[in-house]
Specification:
The complex is a heterotrimer of chains A (335), B (351) and C (513). Chain A has 335 residues and is an all-alpha fold. In chain A, 71% of the residues lie in helices and 1% in strands. Classes of the chains: A mainly alpha (335), B mainly alpha (351), C alpha/beta (513). Chains in contact: A-B, A-C, B-C. Chains B and C meet through α8 and α9 of B and α1 and α2 of C.
């Protein structure tokens, strides 16, 4: 049984009977609310647009959200642990640029280049984590500073130009390839989500992250090395962002210095819609990915219906507000 | 009269330290960077400072009150685009257009404030959503159907005075900034509202207990922030002669950076406009100096990031306390009337 | 009650309508009767002390007056008028000012601004603050308190004793008729305490009523006119301070000798498990030296703030120390973090289980396994759910935890069961030494007994237990040996056979210096 995400209302049941605790409205909402909303949305768009419910369109949506989805997984982990990482936008650029440079200047193979890209992001995450844990600086400010700083680094190493690299088929496969009908990116997303979900719900590390976000003091007093756990979450977030960057670079076959600009906002929006509480401890990576999917479907549907872009932005903003509002209500009702 | 010795000496040192660093940097650049120590550059930097500074005044108020406004960049963009549409496109006189634009932006700020204060949604989320929504609206309103080359830019001379005009060699935009700065300063130091604002940010519970309407204070700060961002946008549009959409991108981080470097705490209850002024100046000088030195454009971000980080670490050391990421979770607290006692070896509340 | 008709007679009632009159106040929380039919009165110009052990109900009474809680039954009258205090704001309006140990001030503002927060005098131009008037008014109030405090001083620069003065000044500016203080001298030096008393006498002279909680009995005798003693939520007596001796007061606080029938003779204690020597931490611990043996329950008595919790935290590696040595099982032990302590075999049940002990979002099983993730996981990380569950079930059964399901979120459990969950965490870990801070605080009678029984079993099985408690009967019932701490120092050490509540209370309240 996973650590409970939603509160149960009411007093414990009569003594002497061993049974599962009762499900309440809040439980249902937290677990299935987003899924239900997504299904409703799909039904709605499906009814309103012929083009929506096609396999082509579905794959297109999935591919579009795969990068944000991967990033959302990493971000969810950080936020579950009680922190936040706004530097991910720049790390996307870093990941892609590192891969591109490896291919161009060091003649490395596709896999190595990709790994180097991810490694770069991981390192940034470690730095973030160290500064936040050891120097005790506010996570928002730290990652905000990193956001600026890493963007600068990307521009420096690329000399402000786009980086064209030898277009190795293997590398381009990451961004453009298919396995059967599914784009590789989507498979990678599924893989990342699956692994993250398993780690989050079934490993000691995942449990520690939830505990850290839930009550840092109690976690520390239980002998868990909270600093290490925290640093690890930032490292994962950095790695995920860099991975997304590598995928995008592989897709467009060029490493662009401003890649990922503004992505941090999209990612946080996805995570928030997915029901991860910014205060920590509540939520899951699975739902965060679902949140990314939800926003992606929303955008896709609106585009197919030719909704004017004014309204698209507004609706997006409203969706975020509504999600937060609902989750807030569900959570405060329990007391 | 008893006057206990300052333990905020560190803080004072830091404020003077910042000023000293700014002057040192300025002098250094005057020597090393070609063209830095020229009147033209000086005027340029002042104009840049004015635009950043006007926005920063509003943001400072929000941050002192314990909130944060991420939507200022988008409001800036909105103001620019609206100005462009009204003055260039529809040929409204500036005396009609500018108040309209400012009103619209203030309204946006008000909406932000209502969502934060009344609906109790964390400011981080509201202004994040606002950032999207407002940007979308602004972009959608952007009309650039140009009929002739002459029509491509805003040409109303009165309007252009705002961003490009001078009075006795002093740029008008700077005068506007000084006016806003002065008004803000007066508001913070001399009015009841300013006092209450510091109180709200510093100790919300104590403030509530004193009967002050915390929500109203917060609401006001967001409204003012909207106004300031709008004003900045108008001045910028006047300066660039167009309401370019790219103008506001990333501005919010510059603004927040300026406020934080200037000594305000993201937890609220602390900060001065003088500090913000120095912080903004720091950012402008740093950026300008580097581009004059021929340093690649985005070294700026790197340096800016490092500076912000340094400022906050020093601030953290001065406070001797861990900063929690309250900035994003400032939501309704089920406040108990009991602040936890936390002195070493201290008696505590008992159930 | 002592049973003596002479001593049990209440003191003479005050002459005019009392500033505060409380009749039959009753308040219950789940599992705990905090106040039962308590009545007292405080006259205008009277300084009234409220004493009693921890858990006696003093804080609850204060909170009701402050508007934080509502009484279940009983009435409150201010200046003869019946009132209902529904909120903190209303308490203010009615002229009740409560000063807590941590003053609620805005540090970014000055003294004057804090005193008159929300009621600043306005200049002719509405909205602008009349600075002169503000300073003048604040100065006026400070003068009445005869305090040399500068109204222009930023509160951020003030130490706690000065902040208290500001709070009192604020109360004065609200023209509070009743000023309540919760252990005002707990954090003050001798000198600062004198300064405070000077102010209290000023308030008295102004005809205001002062009600204060105190643990330091000397102060009660020094400053109070009358004293009310509470015990277990009930009123014991109200007396003129002049008519009592210190010994009388202690006796009232403690009552009859405790029922000691529960005392079991434990087998001889085993080897030394923990040795502490010269532990020091500035302002908190002062040369603490003692030993703890296997199979022994060492009770640590003392007032809140005497350094007991800090000692436990230091032993657990949660706080650092300036100097001193700790040995565990004969080897030097220098815990830098709770992880070190765990590895050495020490566990800590913290004082505040809500804030420091439990992850409320987690289930019972997840809380139990929190210190033991290594043992329930395989391949270095994969949690073995069935094993975790089995472990939890085993401990739930052993501790009779209700509800007996490992999946219930810990938040829904009663206080006693929550405490059991925390204890279970360390049982899962099979520690050698257990530090327990206030084992039965906020725990109902039934669970209390079960916890005592558990600790007894553990001791018999060889565990070394260090038990911090503010509840003297508990100390006497459970301990083999007792240490009394006062102001960071151990002032008394004695075997249980020589201990009485009076002796312990004497030592704890500084009667042995």
């Amino acid at each position: 049984m996973t650590p409970d995400r939603a509160p149960a209302a009411g007093r414990p049941a009569a003594q002497g009977r061993l049974r599962e605790r009762p499900w309440t409205v809040e439980d249902v909402l937290a677990r299935y609310g987003l899924g239900l909303a997504l299904l409703l949305l799909i039904a709605l768009f499906g009814a309103m647009s012929r083009a929506f419910l096609t396999a082509d369109n579905a794959l297109s949506v999935l591919r579009q959200v795969s990068t944000v989805g991967i990033m959302a997984v990493g971000q969810a982990l950080v936020i579950l642990g009680g922190g936040i990482d706004v530097s991910v936008g720049s790390v996307v650029g870093l990941g892609g640029m590192a891969a591109g440079l490896a291919l161009r200047d060091y003649g490395s193979g596709a896999l190595l280049a990709a790994l180097l890209g991810v490694l770069a992001g991981l390192l940034v995450g470690l730095v973030n984590g160290l500064v936040i844990s050891s120097l005790r600086v506010d996570p928002f400010i730290t990652t905000l500073a990193t956001l600026s700083g890493i963007r600068g680094v990307v521009y420096i190493v690329s000399n402000q130009y786009d980086v064209r690299f030898p277009e190795l088929d293997a590398f381009l496969f990451f961004g453009r390839g298919h396995v059967g009908p599914l784009p590789f990116q989507v498979i990678l997303l599924a893989l990342v989500v699956a692994v993250a979900w398993l780690v989050e719900t079934r490993t000691a590390f995942g449990r520690s992250v939830h505990a850290l976000g839930g009550n840092e003091t109690a976690t520390r007093l239980s002998g868990i090395a909270v600093e290490r756990v925290r640093i690890a979450t930032y490292a994962v977030s950095g790695a995920c962002a860099a991975l997304a960057g590598v995928l995008i670079t592989a897709q467009i076959a060029i490493a662009v210095p401003y890649q990922g600009n503004g992505a941090e906002l999209d990612v946080i929006a996805a995570v928030v819609v997915g029901g991860v509480a910014l205060s920590g401890g509540i939520g899951s990576v699975l739902l965060a990915a679902l949140g990314a999917l939800f926003i992606g479907v929303l955008a896709n549907g609106m585009a197919l219906l030719d909704v004017p872009s004014v309204w698209q932005m507004v609706i997006k903003g409203l969706a975020i507000l509504l999600a937060v509002g609902l989750y807030n209500v569900a959570r405060t009702r329990r007391v | 009269m008893l006057h206990p010795r300052v333990t905020g000496a560190f803080r004072a040192l830091r404020s003077y330290g910042l000023l000293a660093a700014l002057i040192a940097m300025g002098l250094g650049l005057a020597v090393t960077a070609p063209g830095f120590a020229s009147v033209g550059n000086g005027a340029d930097m002042l104009r840049d400072l004015a635009i950043l500074g006007i926005m920063a005044v509003g943001e400072t108020l929000v941050i002192i009150g314990g909130g944060i406004d991420l939507s200022v960049g988008s409001i800036l963009m909105l103001a620019g685009i609206l100005s462009d549409n009204l003055v260039r496109g529809l040929h409204f006189g500036p005396f009609v257009a500018v108040p309209l634009v400012l009103a619209a932006c203030t309204l946006v700020g008000l909406i932000n404030g209502l969502l934060v204060a009344r609906a109790r949604i964390p400011a981080f989320i509201v202004t994040l959503a606002g950032l999207y929504a407002i940007r979308g609206v602004a972009l959608a309103l952007y009309r650039h159907d140009v009929t002739s080359v002459a029509d491509a830019l805003i040409s109303d001379p009165t309007f252009l005075l705002l961003g490009q005009g001078d009075v006795l060699r002093v740029p008008i935009s700077v005068l506007i900034f000084l006016l806003v700065l002065g008004a803000g300063h007066g508001l913070l130091r001399r009015t009841r509202f300013g006092l209450h604002l510091y109180a709200v940010g510093g100790n919300e519970l104590a403030t509530r207990l004193s009967g002050i309407d915390v929500e109203r204070v917060r609401l006001a700060t967001f409204t003012m922030s909207g106004f300031c961002a709008g004003l900045s946008g108008v001045v910028l549009a006047s300066r660039l002669q167009t309401g370019a959409p790219e103008a506001g991108l990333g501005a919010e981080f510059d603004v927040i950076g300026a406020v934080v470097i200037g000594g305000a705490s993201l937890l609220g209850g602390r900060g001065t406009l003088v500090g913000t002024l120095v912080g903004a100046a720091f950012i402008i000088v740093l950026g300008k100096g580097q581009s004059l030195l021929g340093v690649p454009a985005n070294y700026q971000s790197f340096a800016r990031g490092a500076v912000i980080l340094l400022a906050v670490v020093l601030d953290g050391l001065a406070q001797r306390r861990r900063l929690i990421s309250r900035v994003i979770t400032r939501g309704p607290r089920t406040g108990s009337a009991f602040p936890a006692a936390s002195y070493p070896g201290e008696a505590r509340m008992r159930p | 009650m002592t049973g003596s008709p002479l001593l049990d007679r209440p003191g003479p009632p005050p002459a005019t309508a009392p500033a505060l009159e409380v009749v039959g106040l009753t308040k219950a929380f789940p599992g705990v009767q905090a106040l039962e039919d308590v009545s007292l009165s405080v006259g205008a110009g009277e300084v009234h002390a409220l004493v009693g052990e921890n858990g006696a109900g003093k804080s609850t009474l204060i909170k009701i007056l402050a508007g934080v809680y509502q009484a279940d039954a009983g009435s409150v009258r201010l200046g003869g008028q019946p009132v209902t205090i529904r909120s903190v704001h209303e308490a203010h309006r009615l002229g009740i000012a409560v000063i807590y140990q941590e003053p609620a001030l805005v540090s970014a503002l000055t003294v004057a601004e804090n005193i008159l927060l929300g009621r600043e005098p306005l200049a002719r131009l509405r909205g602008l603050v009349d600075r002169q008037a503000l300073l003048a008014e604040a100065q006026r109030i400070l003068d009445r308190l005869q305090s040399p405090l500068d109204p222009r001083a930023p509160v951020a620069e003030l130490g706690i004793s000065w902040r208290q003065v500001v709070e009192i000044a604020k109360a004065l500016s609200l023209d509070a008729r009743l000023i309540v203080m919760d252990e005002p001298t707990a954090a003050l030096t001798l000198q600062e305490t004198q300064r405070l008393f000077h102010i209290v006498r000023e308030l008295k002279a102004q005809g205001r009523a002062v009600l204060f909680i105190s643990h330091t009995l000397e102060e009660v005798f020094e400053i109070a006119d009358r004293v009310t003693v509470l015990r277990d939520g009930k009123l014991v007596t109200t007396r003129e301070v002049g008519s009592l001796t210190r010994a009388d007061l202690v006796r009232f606080m403690i009552g009859r000798a405790v029922d000691e029938s529960r005392n079991r003779a434990r087998p001889v204690v085993g080897l030394e498990v923990l040795r502490v020597s010269g532990l020091r931490r500035q302002g908190v611990l002062d040369d603490v030296t003692f030993t703890l043996h296997a199979g022994e329950v060492l009770g640590i008595a003392g007032l809140v703030g005497s350094g007991r919790t800090e000692l436990a935290r230091a032993l657990f590696g949660a706080d650092s120390v300036d100097s001193g040595e700790i040995w565990m099982g004969g080897r030097r032990f220098d815990p830098r973090s709770p992880r070190d302590a765990l590895r050495a075999g020490i566990g800590l049940v913290p004082e505040d289980r809500k804030r420091e002990g439990l992850v409320e979002l987690f289930s019972t099983a997840a809380n139990i396994s929190l210190a033991n993730l290594g043992a329930i996981s395989r391949f270095g990380g994969w949690i073995d759910r069935p094993r975790e569950r089995a472990l939890a079930m085993r401990l739930i059964a052993r501790l009779s935890l209700q509800p007996p399901s490992p999946d219930w979120p810990v938040r829904t459990l009663s206080g006693g069961n929550q405490q059991k969950a925390v204890l279970a965490r360390w049982l899962a870990r099979d520690v050698k030494a257990l530090l327990v801070d206030e084992p039965t605080r906020g725990v109902d009678v039934g669970a209390k007994d079960e916890i005592y029984q558990l600790m007894d079993e553990l001791a018999r099985a060889g565990m070394a237990i260090l038990m911090i408690s503010s509840y003297l009967p508990e100390i006497l019932q459970m301990s083999d040996r007792i240490l009394v701490m006062q102001e960071g120092r151990i002032v008394l050490e004695l075997p249980r056979s020589e201990a009485t509540e009076e002796r312990l209370m004497e030592a704890a309240t500084g009667g042995l210096t």
